[in-house]
Amino acid sequence: MNPRVKQVSSSDDYKLYLVFTNGERGIYDCSDLLDFGVFSELKNTHYFNQVKVIDGTVSWPHEQDICPDTLYMDSLRNIS
């Protein structure tokens, strides 16, 4: 099982800055999701920046979330 998300912060260019439970850091780019159904609401940067960690993954107020395995496997990791 891959590590889960421990901490998240966001940027106005649709990137999530992640800290995983194993101590690794990563950057996940959400821009490819913005035209996909439930994720289109994330285009609003004010809404996008409301991201938080719930149960080891990232989530937004209207319950959009991203699989923690996807976040770990597809993020650029070990970023200072």
Helix content: 10-25%
- Cα(first) to Cα(last) distance is 24 Å
* SSE succession: EEEHEEEHE
The level 1 CATH classification is Alpha Beta
Reported for the largest beta sheet, the result is: 4 strands, antiparallel
Q: At the third CATH level, what is the topology name?
A: NE0471 N-terminal domain-like
Low-confidence stretches: none
Q: What is the β-strand count? A: 7
Radius of gyration: 12 Å
Please state the structural category: alpha+beta
Q: How are the elements arranged and paired?
A:
Layout: E1 5-10, E2 15-20, E3 25-29, H1 45-48, E4 52-54, E5 57-59, E6 65-66, H2 68-74, E7 76-77
Antiparallel strand pairs: 1-2, 2-3, 3-7, 4-5, 5-6
Question: In a nutshell, what does this entry contain?
Answer:
The protein is of the alpha+beta class and 80 residues long. The protein has one domain (5-77): 2-Layer Sandwich (NE0471 N-terminal domain-like), CATH 3.30.2020.10. It contains two helices and seven strands; from the N terminus they run E-E-E-H-E-E-E-H-E.
In words, what does this structure look like?
By secondary structure, the protein is of the alpha+beta class. Strands 1-2-3-7 form a four-stranded antiparallel beta sheet, covered by helices on one side. A three-stranded antiparallel beta sheet has the order 4-5-6. It is built from two helices and seven strands; from the N terminus they run βββαβββαβ. A hairpin with a 5-residue loop joins strand 5 and strand 6 (65-66). The protein has a single domain (5-77), classed as NE0471-like N-terminal domain (NE0471 N-terminal domain-like).
